[in-house]
Write a structure and sequence with these properties.
alpha+beta, two-stranded antiparallel ribbon, about 45% helix, binds zinc ion
Length: about 240
């Protein structure tokens, strides 16, 4: 790097205020912005940027984008049960709202600092990526949940385990059905038998309501007429029991 000129003593990155002396290349290690040591317009000169200003100019990093990713995963898990896992869903919504407020305030402050410093240049791709990470994560998780992908995936992963258990229950109509703690990826609260079918109550779902699945193995038109569940697979229905039912 012998041909790389040294920037002036007080040169700072225009993107984030990082000190640019003694770097191995003409790229800011903090935000990835390029500068030309021979062109003062590509650097901030003459004014020391305060630590607080430097801190608030930076895009969010792992401290915010990490919890945002966690909230995204948490939303997918919380909506993977019929009716949603209520407690986790509430926690996730609070966490998501809190992170979105922190993100929004940081964006406003950083934009305010950039405007005050007359920084007109476009931020680097890396800086942009760090800013858009949270909205992209939240929008992707919301889209996945809007299409009910988590619940359908969980159902198909658990279907054979529930079917096996249902057949055991139907073959032993005189004994009360056993309640395993898990069937596939579903935590089970209760198992009931009814005319020719088996009903699974998924634990922790709903608020003042119960949610689960019904298994009706044979073409049981009488039973099929009486229940209001929505068919989600051959012999399988999703059902909900409200607080007043
Ligand atoms: Zn920088």
């Amino acid at each position: 790097m012998s041909d790389f000129p040294t920037p002036p003593e007080n040169a700072l990155c225009r993107g984030c205020g990082y000190a640019l002396r003694g770097l191995p290349s003409n790229r800011c290690p903090e935000c990835g912005r390029e500068f030309d040591p021979r062109d003062p317009a590509t650097m901030l000169l003459g004014r020391r940027v305060g630590r607080l200003e430097t801190f608030f100019s930076r895009p969010p990093r792992l401290w915010l984008n990490g919890p945002a990713a966690l909230a995204g995963v948490s939303l997918i898990v919380a909506t993977s049960g019929p009716g949603g896992y209520f407690g986790l869903l509430i926690l996730t919504i609070y966490l998501g709202m809190f992170l979105a407020v922190v993100w929004g305030l940081r964006l406003l402050i950083a934009a305010g600092i950039a405007i005050a410093n007359r920084r007109r240049s476009r931020p680097s791709m890396r800086t942009m990526a760090r800013w858009v990470a949270l909205p992209v994560i939240f929008a992707s998780a919301a889209l996945i949940c809007a299409f009910n992908v988590p619940e359908l995936t969980a159902f198909w992963l658990s279907k054979s385990a529930m079917e096996r258990h249902a057949r055991v229950c139907l073959n032993n109509p005189t004994t009360a059905p056993a309640t395993p703690s898990w069937l596939g990826v579903f935590p089970i609260k209760r198992v009931e038998t009814f005319h020719g079918g088996v009903r699974f109550f998924v634990a922790e779902t709903g608020f003042l309501s119960e949610h689960g699945y019904e298994y009706l193995p044979q073409d049981n038109s009488a039973a099929e007429k009486t229940h209001q569940g929505e068919k989600i697979a051959e012999n399988w229905y999703r059902w909900t029991r409200g607080f007043m039912d």
